[in-house]
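Hey, sorry to bother you again with one of my protein questions. I've been puzzling over a protein and I'd love to understand its fold better. Take your time with it, there's no hurry, and the full record follows here:
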Amino acid sequence: MCIQLTDELKNTAREIAIRRVNNGMFNRFGLTREERIDNAYKGALGEVAFEQLLNNNGVEYRTDIHTCDEPDHGDFFINNCSIDVKIAKTYKTPMPRWMFGVPIGQNPELKDYTIIGWWNPTQNQIHFYGSIRGENLEGRPVVNFNTFTGARYLTNNIEITWGELDQNFDGLLGNIQLDHN
């Protein structure tokens, strides 16, 4: 599933990113203010794009992405189901063997689902690749570098391969709406 990023979505994401940095997000990484905003912007783009996807599909939800002042219990809530959205920045379509790191400090195993996607700035699009249940993230090894590329993570992560993600979004959204009432 793909969402074309409009100027409105990008501006909303930028406002969210600035508000998050002003509230202390990413202070622990030793990044400059602009680097922190850029990092927060990537995540906010994914969140506003996922919100657009939900709106496009008539899915009722609540969110805390606009408040930015509470601990992360999930980005979206559909009925009683918590969903976290994670985005990678890449100019290539991810391959199934690629690894994606999910920060352990955000307790991904406690969320019902994590949605993984990627942002291609050249195409100005967010692509949602798939999802994984939080319970399937428990007990995985903790790493501080991407085991596929060798790139260092800013924080400790657990990793998943893109190939193990469930790509059936219609089924996911339907199941969440039915099963979590």
